[in-house]
Design goal:
It comes from Flagellimonas hymeniacidonis. One of its GO terms (molecular function) is efflux transmembrane transporter activity. Belongs to the outer membrane factor (OMF) (TC 1.B.17) family. This is TolC family protein. The protein has 449 residues and is of the alpha+beta class. The chain has 2 domains: 325 residues, Outer membrane efflux proteins (OEP); 84 residues, no CATH class. The protein is 66% helix and 15% strand. It is built from 10 helices and 8 strands. The strands form 3 sheets. Strands 2-3-5-8 form a 4-stranded antiparallel sheet. A hairpin with a 5-residue loop joins strand 6 and strand 7. The radius of gyration is 41 Å and the shape is elongated.
């Protein structure tokens, strides 16, 4: 039994450790961010609220139905409800009724409010989808930053491992009197500098991991990490399309443009609804009512007075009324006219914002297009520089090993390689992200595969 319990505890401990060591892929990060972001949840509530507005607008087109009832007792002077004559007694009265009203015409405002509510729900969906797009881009950028910093840190550690070997060999040469002590000091300085680079690299990895975790709204920073992977430059033919072609396509599917356009349509609906207040309103009504009073006196079949019971009175004194009511707006302190003017201003504002959003999109696409070209050239230049630095370092190492180069010049060659490798990694991921932004504008989902 003890063995089983111990085994179970070991299995549980392994499970917990594995859970803590989970490393996130880009797709997992994007999916988690979209599903758990608080702002998205708030926008989702706005969408649900707009769907309720649609139900309200539909309900305004339907007849209403209300029931009413009152019970009262009166002592002293009152009017007998049977014969409308004054009486001085105590009376117990019950009144009940039903009423219904329906708007027959109000300048088509109810129908247009329904159309507006449906359009508002679509607009809120566009806004929600646009926020998801922004979150996907931000998460991808933060994820690539973590990967870039991790690759740089690996490079620093690998370079430090090589320097440790050089340091060990130089110590032996100095102790044997072959090399001067100055060479050892230079190698030690190089090693100390690389140790500092490693510390800074670890700090950058940690900060970038925290930034990504905050985007995902994960607070367990210590146990959060991304998958240990590196990415090559992905193949892409996006530059086969001009910036104008990418912009024209983006206008058709970008959620921010759809949202901006829907705001123009909403403003147009608001203007039409405001103008509808200038028209007469026609309302139909239907009322049913009945009553009971204990002072009611009516003649029976023989002409003798008597007081009918409660149920009989409800049937005897019930009645209905129905009809239509027309209200014609003549003067309301210019409120209708001013509402129309405000709606026109809001429409102009929405149209200007729509044009501004299209202009911003075109500017962003042009910038992204230039960035892809520029950052690719920067990456190519960094790769060429790295290749040249590596060859120079290898040549310097060969000369240093045979004593034809001093430690200071050798350390400088090694430092230039370090910087070139870090620059090559940075420019690679800068280019990958800019490439993904441009593809995203073209409608290609974010993926690093």
């Amino acid at each position: 039994m003890k063995f089983k319990i111990t085994l179970l505890m070991i299995v549980c401990a392994m499970f917990i450790t594995n859970a803590q060591m989970k490393k996130w892929t880009l797709q997992e990060c994007v999916t988690f961010a979209v599903e758990n972001n608080l702002t998205i949840e708030q926008f989702q509530l706005d969408l649900e609220d707009s769907q309720i507005d649609e139900s309200d607008a539909l309900g305004n087109m339907l007849p209403n139905l209300n029931a009413s009832s009152s019970v009262s007792s009166n002592t002293g002077f009152s009017i007998n409800p049977t014969n409308n004559l004054p009486t001085n007694s105590t009376a117990f009265n019950v009144n009940m009724g039903f009423s219904s009203n329906v708007t027959l015409f109000n300048g088509l405002r109810n129908i247009r409010r329904l159309h507006r509510a449906r359009l508002s729900a679509i607009s809120n969906q566009y806004r929600l989808d646009d926020l998801k797009d922004d979150i996907r881009l931000n998460v991808a950028n933060a994820y690539l930053q973590v990967i870039s910093n991790k690759e740089t840190l690996k490079t620093f550690r690998a370079q430090y491992a090589v320097t440790e070997q050089d340091l060990k060999r130089t110590k032996e040469l100095v102790e044997s009197g072959v090399s001067p002590r100055g060479d050892l000091l230079e190698i030690e300085a190089t090693a100390a500098n690389q140790e500092q680079q490693i510390v800074n690299g670890e700090s950058l990895v940690l900060i970038s991991r925290i930034n990504l975790a905050q985007l995902l709204q994960i607070t367990d920073y210590e146990n959060f990490d991304v998958a240990d992977e590196s990415f090559d430059i992905p193949p892409s033919d996006i530059l086969d399309n001009s910036a104008k072609v990418i912009f024209d396509k983006a206008l058709g599917f970008r959620n921010d443009i759809k949202f901006s356009k829907s705001n123009v349509e909403l403003a147009e609906k608001d203007l039409v609804i405001a103008k509808g207040a200038n028209y007469p309103t026609l309302t139909g009504f239907f009322n049913y009512g009945t009553r009971y009073s204990d002072v009611t006196v009516i003649p029976d079949g023989n002409g003798d007075p008597f007081t009918p019971n409660f149920t009989d009175q409800l049937w005897i004194f019930d009645g209905i009324s129905y009809g239509a009511q027309l209200n014609v707006p003549i003067f309301n302190g210019w409120s209708t006219r001013n509402n129309v003017k405000r709606s026109k201003i809001n429409l102009d504002r929405a149209r200007l914002q729509f044009e501004q959003d299209k202009l911003d999109l075109e500017t962003n696409i042009q910038q992204a297009y230039v960035d892809v070209t520029t950052f690719f050239k920067a990456y190519e230049a960094a790769e060429k520089t790295l290749e040249a630095r590596r060859l120079a370092y290898q040549y310097a190492k060969e000369r240093f090993d045979v004593g034809l180069m001093n430690a200071f010049d050798f350390s400088q060659a090694q430092s230039r390689v370090d910087n070139a490798e870090a620059d090559a990694i940075r420019t690679k991921y800068d280019y990958i992200f800019r490439l993904k932004i441009l593809e995203f504008y073209f409608g290609i989902p974010i993926s690093l595969n």
